[in-house]
Amino acid sequence: MKGWFQKLTDVSTVARTKEMFNEALTELAQELGFEYYAYLNLQPIGTFAVSNYHPEWQDWYFAKSFNEIDPVIQIARSTMKAFTWSSANSRTVRSRRVRQFYLDAAGFGIRSGITMNSTEICRRLLS
Fold first, then answer.
1. pLDDT for 24-55, tens place per residue?
2. Domain containing 30 — which CATH number?
3. Transcription factor LuxR-like autoinducer-binding domain spans which residues (predicted)?
């Protein structure tokens, strides 16, 4: 996993275009056995996002304002550790809107993943 963190850091530093970044992230996701990826960089001055999620899912996600309740983003903001997540967790969620988020994501083939934030990547690389 440490090697993957290093590759992710290298890619985010070296990629000169969005296309290069997409291609590199696709390869890294496949190395870990995932079909999809989403890279989100949240900064006070703006947000940068790159994803190979289905365009219809991306449109649906923002049309439904899922970015406001996405539990994966909420956990990533509150923890400085990498974590796994799964739509199977939706059964224990009280919020109907969050359960719907998981159901809709699963309908587009998004059922589980690994999430890490850049602070965690840097911390692990320096350890």
1. 888 888 888 888 988 877 667 766 778 899 99
2. 3.30.450.80
3. 21-116
